[in-house]
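> call design_seq(struct)
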């Protein structure tokens, strides 16, 4: 199992869920934490091939650059399951995908925003986007799903989008910079009416910055994705307006797929987790 790191509570629960499910079924895991580097993942997967494991499972930190190592796994007759994030590779090089639907998550965020703004006297809404890791399928799909709906509505205008790499420290840094440069929740003279953040750690980082600068985001609509506990608590405290769930608990379903493959059965091309949306109205 090649995991990308421990960058969020989501990621830590994702790893925990997989280890617990493996233990329940007496499946042994050879584990590698890539510490956010694709190069470490490639090394880990190659070591799994040498070790002649039964099944290789990995989270592709970014979508490209996997063809060669997947061909090597195929040549070694080791099936591969891609989890959590998707890859741009020949589908014959891996058995299937299990994860979340980022596009749906982006659309859920947009649907909440449209609804919320339909009850507002304002006619124009400026959006600040904190994006996840560049070239990760999940950041691309969340951005696309959100834009699919928002771009059809002339009231909305993206005034700034920045890559926060799914990190809390970057979320805080980006907000600190915006406040230092513009003197508050604005970009040049445009008020930031909406913040769409691709994951809770970046959102919690920006809330920290607003706190430090004694800025209450009461007129700013803030939407986040993951639904880790700290983010749900912020929703309850009225600091956030909407938190879209991204379900990290892939473990049990993943072990079903691993056992299917080991029994020589095929698995579905894509399996998606069930997810919900938490809003200020819940
Ligand atoms: C989501 C997962 C993302 C989480 C982030 O599928 O890839 O990566 O939303 C994590 O918290 O960093
Ligand atoms: Zn400051």
């Amino acid at each position: 199992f090649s995991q990308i790191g421990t960058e969020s509570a989501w990621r830590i629960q994702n790893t925990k869920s997989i280890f617990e499910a493996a233990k329940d079924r007496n499946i042994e895991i050879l584990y590698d934490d890539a510490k956010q580097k694709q190069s470490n993942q490639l090394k880990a997967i190659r070591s799994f091939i040498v070790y002649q494991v039964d099944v290789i499972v990995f989270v592709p930190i970014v979508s490209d650059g996997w063809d060669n190592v997947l061909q090597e796994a195929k040549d070694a007759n080791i099936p591969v399951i891609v989890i959590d994030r998707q890859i741009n590779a020949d589908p014959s090089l891996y058995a299937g995908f299990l994860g979340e639907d980022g596009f749906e998550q982006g659309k859920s965020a947009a649907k909440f925003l449209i609804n919320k703004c339909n009850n507002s006297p304002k006619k124009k809404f400026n959006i600040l986007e904190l994006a996840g890791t560049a070239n990760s399928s999940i950041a691309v799909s969340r951005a696309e799903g959100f834009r699919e709906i928002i771009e059809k509505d002339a009231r909305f205008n993206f005034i700034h989008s920045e890559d926060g790499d799914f990190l809390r420290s970057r979320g805080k840094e980006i907000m600190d910079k915006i406040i230092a440069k513009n003197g508050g929740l604005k970009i040049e003279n445009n008020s930031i009416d909406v913040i769409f953040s691709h994951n809770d750690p970046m959102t919690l980082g920006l809330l920290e910055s607003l706190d430090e600068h004694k800025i209450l985001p009461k007129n700013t609509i803030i939407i986040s994705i993951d639904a880790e506990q700290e983010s749900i608590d912020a929703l309850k405290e009225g600091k956030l307006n909407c938190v879209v769930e991204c379900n990290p608990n892939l473990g049990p379903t993943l072990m079903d797929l691993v056992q299917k493959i080991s029994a020589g059965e095929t698995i579905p091309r894509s399996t998606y987790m069930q997810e919900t949306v938490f809003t200020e109205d819940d």
